[in-house]
Amino acid sequence: MPAPVLPRLTQARAPLTHAVEIVNELGEREQVQIPAERPLTIYVDKRELVTLMTLGAQPELLVLGYLRNQRLVESVLDIESITVDWEVHAAAVRTRHGIARIEERTASKVVTTGCGQGSVFGGLMDEVDRIKLPEARLTQGQLYGIVNAIRLKETTYKSSGSVHGCALFQGEELLVFVEDVGRHNAIDTIAGWMWMNPETPASDNAASDALAVPMSGADKVFYTTGRLTSEMVIKSAQMGVPIVVSRSGMTQMGHAVAQQLGLCAIGRATNRRFVCFSGTHRLVLQPELAQPPVVPPAQVLNPH
Q: CATH for 138-290?
């Protein structure tokens, strides 16, 4: 039996920023960079599915993660190839065996609160009860390490603003960082990245089997610059990630879903401040770390 293979992906690239001329408050003209925003229409086996508005940084992973988080495909091995062509703003997905009942499964759509008007297909909301998150813990010290790593990261946001960033951590180690015009796009891209980076096999003999085992989210932490909505919470849980961190806040439905799932949701995480909205049993508090370090008074030299 031939070994399973990951899908073939193009490496389509497009400029992430665009120069425009502006007039500032002093009446001065200057050029500034703003983020790109472009449509990407996804076709699955030649059938038009949806059009996403995206920055365009890693479009193939975005498409793969979108299909994963919408539960339209069950495994990365269901996809044969994804071809992105920016000249026609299209992504052509070829599956190995088609998608069963695709018309029925995509008939109901819920417009979410995501920037750029994200959407999820209605059946996705019905699957929350089936998700079982693994046990995981995060220490307050690790949380501070995550926040600091994001602070030091060179980003499109720092150069042009107006984008959201999402990241996946293992402990304090940054595994992948993605920016897009909508946080829902960024988390989908990370979901696609996880599928394209399956678990490392324990031995060479297990190499082919490993492709069928997606990267585990059990020991991972998801970070976002945007607010924690129900969509973000559900997608994190679908990826098997039990801890999410945001520098922003949380919505009522996002909180309700997180409580239902037992997911640890930490918001307003900046510097040494944060609030844990749910799943406090997963957070190992170290309140002594919240205090700023004591700086000894400067010594005054005796001139005599």
A: 3.40.140.10
